[in-house]
Each structure stands twice: as structure tokens, then as C-alpha cells.
Specification:
This protein is α+β, with helices and mostly antiparallel strands. It is built from 6 helices and 8 strands. α4 packs across α5.
């Protein structure tokens, strides 16, 4: 478990799948920058159970200090196996804008760079998602460019930022 001042991060387990399913299928949880989708629940659970056993990925729960689920953070290694693609969702609007996402990203980034053979961590976010861009920049990530018409979301093709950090840059700022 990763422990911060505001949040703890722990690996997701089968008991968490109800939360994960709910968060991905209701727009209020996905926020303004990701579209909720409809899934066959049994197939969704079956697929996620497979994902939870994939050694090149980790799905983790973000919880407050009272163990209340706030959202998820995850990574999977890209084809090169030295690049980690991450994603994060704070599922409840009332929990956004309080530094929770920043702390979760900082804890998870440190964990990945210190424990995995990863040279780079990256994520994409819609260009109109200023909060997710700021969170990355506060943690030390860099906007590397714009991916034009990168993803079809909420009825149209959207531009996304590519935001990344290298292990070298992280360790240079966080050597103990």
C-alpha cells in the first residue's frame, strides 16, 4: 500500500469491481472529460478479472484515510515494456480540486519509477481538461505535444495532450 497525507493507494481486488463498473458506466463519475459507456456487466467483470492478473499492469484504488474509495489509478506497460501508460479517475465531483489527484499521481509515479524497470511514464488528457494538465505539471510532468483528433469522445473527435516524465528527470528531483 502507498500511503500519503490525504490518500492511500492499494491494488484493486475482485471486491472493488462493483465500484469500478459503476464509475465507468455513469457520467457523473466520469466527469466532463471522459464519456461513460454501456457494458455487459458479466463480460466487464470477466475482462477486469483477467486484467487484475496481468503482470504488466496494475489497477489500484485511491482511498481516503478512512478507506472510502475515491477513484482509481492504473498503469500498463506499452509494447516496449520501458514505457508505462497511466490513467486516473477521481469518481466523485466533491473530491476533485482538493489535491487528491496530485498526491495520488505523485505517490504512484514514485512507486513505478522506484520499483519497475520503466524509463518513461505517460498519459493523455483532453486539451480542455486543464485540471489534469495542472496536476501533471505540479508533479513534474511535461506536456510534450498535442495529438490531434486522437480520440472519439462524447460525440466528436477530440485533441489530447501527451504528458510524460522520464525516470531520469524524476530521480534527479527526488533523490533521498
Amino acid at each position: 500500500m502507498l500511503k500519503g497525507e490525504k490518500v492511500n493507494i492499494r491494488p484493486m481486488c475482485n471486491d472493488d469491481l462493483e465500484f469500478f463498473y459503476l464509475w465507468h458506466t455513469e457520467q457523473e463519475h466520469m466527469g466532463n472529460f471522459m464519456g461513460a459507456d454501456m457494458y455487459y456487466k458479466d463480460m466487464y467483470f470477466e475482462n477486469m478479472k483477467k486484467n487484475l492478473t496481468d503482470y504488466t499492469a496494475l489497477f489500484a484504488m485511491i482511498e481516503d484515510k478512512e478507506n472510502r474509495p475515491l477513484g482509481i489509478i492504473n498503469y500498463h506497460q506499452k509494447n516496449s515494456h520501458v514505457v508505462a501508460e497511466i490513467g486516473m479517475l477521481l469518481a466523485y465531483p466533491a473530491d476533485r480540486g482538493k489535491g487528491i489527484g496530485e498526491e495520488a499521481l505523485r505517490l504512484f509515479t514514485d512507486y513505478l519509477f522506484r520499483t519497475k524497470a520503466i524509463a518513461r511514464i505517460q498519459y493523455q488528457t483532453r486539451v480542455d481538461n486543464a485540471a489534469m494538465r495542472r496536476i501533471g505539471e505540479k508533479v513534474g510532468y511535461t506536456v510534450e505535444g498535442v495529438l490531434r483528433n486522437y480520440f472519439y469522445d462524447q460525440g466528436r473527435f477530440r485533441d489530447y495532450y501527451m504528458i510524460a516524465m522520464t525516470k531520469e528527470d524524476w530521480l534527479a528531483k527526488h533523490v533521498e
